[in-house]
């Protein structure tokens, strides 16, 4: 088992070179354990090195060359990881994209990154002009011993993309040197707490997943994967794996896992995943009774993190503090200085809501959230700036109303968005609920009966599946556009 501060990292200039060092040290160690409908498989470090070599040959055969940016939008995440390292070996820069995104979004992001092409193994995408089928590997005999990663610390190694929850995702290029340094901090600086063999179920287009894979690939730790289209039974089995030590999941999966365990009658006298050294919730709020129940049922090593693309993890709530401060996101990490400021940037006193501003490494950033610090230094996030609406003089906090709508309807997921009113002054509040449209009449009746007219949404939309980002947050901006394009789906309550 590996704990914070106990891992010795290597001194090479790139992740690729550090990976090769691991291959040299222990080629037979298992890097990937895979679970699918056909059974359990594994890939050693030597196996995966061979896959990288074959992928490198295939890319070279397609004309990929040093200095190019190449988009990847695959369903197979291990193939994506091999493609990332293969592109590094060719001196190219990978741009990892979410295969579930509309082709127009994929091509727009590729265009902003100046990618020469996008490769995908998803037939639905490759039917679109500008998205090519992922190349297949060449002959193993041609590549033996040829994998070398150029010493190019200042070349772009990755593009960190913001979540795209409330607007167009921002792209931030990261050099090989910066990427290795950030990965090193994850393992040795205590920034992410205890860690080890990781259960992974999220798409690699989510930056946090890539960082975990980078970290484990250069430290000799295992990655236990589940299928990209998994069910909760498969995720449960992976988390019960005898070698599983950590998992990072978004709140929507943690809530779903709790419901699955309760529905299957699997709640025991102790947390189900008591072998884990960490179960981390990342990418959105997991608060109050939902959080304490998850800690009790899933793992007493559950922790909540608050982070942003710009600054990484800002704060963490864990251990007994979850029971004492369940609506907080914890105390800021030691290297983060948090201020709460008003619209003009002036500091606000404790317990007063304002813009969250974090200062780290000499630079200040605003994650885009509103919140406050209490007298003990705990940080509370009350919503994103874009999630505050006003109607008839009453201000709305979207997450609070979403939780209330879910309680009333019994739906697993709700997203509150706004649209301009016909008068053009107040917002129209729209509740978009993940449910079958056949529930429309029942949901309207419940909302009229149980929500005050002051807080009740003006309109309701029912969709079988809400669009989500790579981190499984609801893609609000995409949702607003979808409703704008299909106004007939929006019904008055």
Walk me through the structure.
There is one protein chain. Strand 11, helix 9 (251-263) and strand 12 (278-281) form a beta-alpha-beta unit. Helix 9 (251-263) crosses helix 10 (288-297). This protein is α/β, with parallel strands linked by helices. The strands form six sheets. A nine-stranded mixed beta sheet has the order 2-1-10-9-11-12-13-14-15, sandwiched between helices. Strands 16, 17, 18, 19 and 20 form a five-stranded antiparallel beta sheet that branches. A four-stranded parallel beta sheet has the order 4-3-5-6, with helices on both faces. The chain has helices spanning 15-25, 45-61, 77-89, 103-112, 123-126, 176-188, 207-217, 232-239, 251-263, 288-297, 320-324, 398-409, 440-450, 476-485; strands spanning 30-36, 39-44, 69-72, 93-96, 115-120, 131-133, 156-161, 171-175, 198-200, 223-225, 246-249, 278-281, 302-308, 312-318, 331-332, 337-341, 354-360, 363-365, 369-373, 379-384, 388-391, 394-397, 414-420, 427-434, 459-463, 491-492. It folds into three domains: 15-239, Rossmann fold; 250-385, Roll (Luciferase, domain 3); 392-492, 2-Layer Sandwich (GMP Synthetase, Chain A, domain 3), CATH 3.30.300.30. It is built from 14 helices and 26 strands. The N and C termini lie far apart (54 Å).
Keywords for this entry:
14 helices; 26 strands; 493 residues; alpha/beta; GMP Synthetase, Chain A, domain 3; medium-chain fatty acid-CoA ligase activity; ANL_N_sf; 3 domains; Luciferase, domain 3; Rossmann fold
């Amino acid at each position: 088992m590996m704990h914070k501060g106990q891992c010795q990292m290597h001194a090479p200039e790139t992740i690729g070179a550090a990976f090769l060092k691991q291959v040299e040290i222990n080629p037979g160690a298992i890097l990937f354990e895979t679970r699918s409908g056909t059974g359990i498989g594994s890939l050693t470090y030597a196996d995966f090195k061979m896959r990288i070599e074959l992928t490198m040959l295939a890319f070279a055969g397609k004309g990929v060359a040093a200095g190019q940016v190449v988009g990847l939008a695959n369903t197979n995440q291990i193939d994506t990881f091999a493609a990332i390292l293969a592109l590094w070996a060719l001196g190219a820069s990978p741009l990892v994209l979410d295969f579930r995104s509309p082709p127009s979004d994929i091509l727009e992001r590729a265009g902003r990154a100046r990618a020469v092409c996008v490769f995908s193994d998803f037939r639905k995408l490759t039917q679109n002009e500008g998205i090519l089928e992922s190349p297949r590997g060449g002959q193993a005999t041609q590549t033996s011993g040829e994998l070398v990663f150029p010493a190019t610390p200042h070349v772009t190694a990755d593009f960190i993309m913001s979540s795209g929850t409330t607007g167009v995702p921002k792209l931030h290029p990261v050099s090989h040197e910066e990427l290795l340094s950030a990965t090193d901090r994850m393992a040795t600086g205590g920034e992410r707490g205890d860690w080890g063999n990781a259960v992974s179920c999220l798409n690699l287009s989510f930056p946090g997943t890539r960082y975990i894979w980078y970290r484990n690939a250069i430290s000799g730790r295992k990655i236990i994967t589940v299928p990209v289209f998994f069910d909760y039974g498969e995720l449960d089995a992976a988390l019960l794996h005898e070698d599983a030590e950590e998992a990072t999941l978004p709140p929507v999966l943690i809530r779903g896992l709790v419901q699955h365990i309760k529905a299957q009658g699997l709640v025991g006298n102790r947390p189900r995943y008591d072998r884990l050294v960490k179960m981390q919730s990342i990418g959105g709020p997991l608060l109050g009774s939902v959080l304490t129940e998850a800690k009790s049922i899933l793992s007493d090593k559950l922790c909540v993190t608050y982070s942003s693309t710009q600054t990484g993890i800002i704060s963490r709530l864990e251990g007994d503090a979850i029971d004492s401060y369940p609506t907080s996101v914890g105390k800021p990490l030691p290297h983060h200085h948090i201020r709460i400021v008003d619209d003009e940037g002036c500091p606000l006193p404790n317990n007063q809501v304002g813009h969250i501003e974090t200062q780290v490494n000499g630079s200040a950033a605003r994650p885009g959230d509103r919140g406050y610090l209490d007298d003990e230094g705990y940080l509370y996030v009350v919503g994103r700036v874009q999630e505050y609406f006003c109607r008839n003089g009453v201000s709305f906090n979207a997450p609070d109303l979403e939780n209330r709508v879910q309680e009333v309807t019994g739906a697993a997921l709700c997203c509150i968005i706004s649209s301009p009113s016909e008068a053009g002054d107040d917002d129209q509040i729209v509740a978009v609920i993940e449910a079958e449209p056949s529930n429309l009449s029942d949901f309207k009746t419940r909302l009229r009966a149980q929500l005050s007219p002051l807080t009740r949404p003006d309109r309701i939309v029912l969709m079988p599946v809400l669009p989500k980002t790579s981190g499984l947050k609801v893609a609000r901006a995409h949702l607003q556009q979808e409703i704008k394009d299909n106004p007939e789906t929006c019904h008055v309550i």
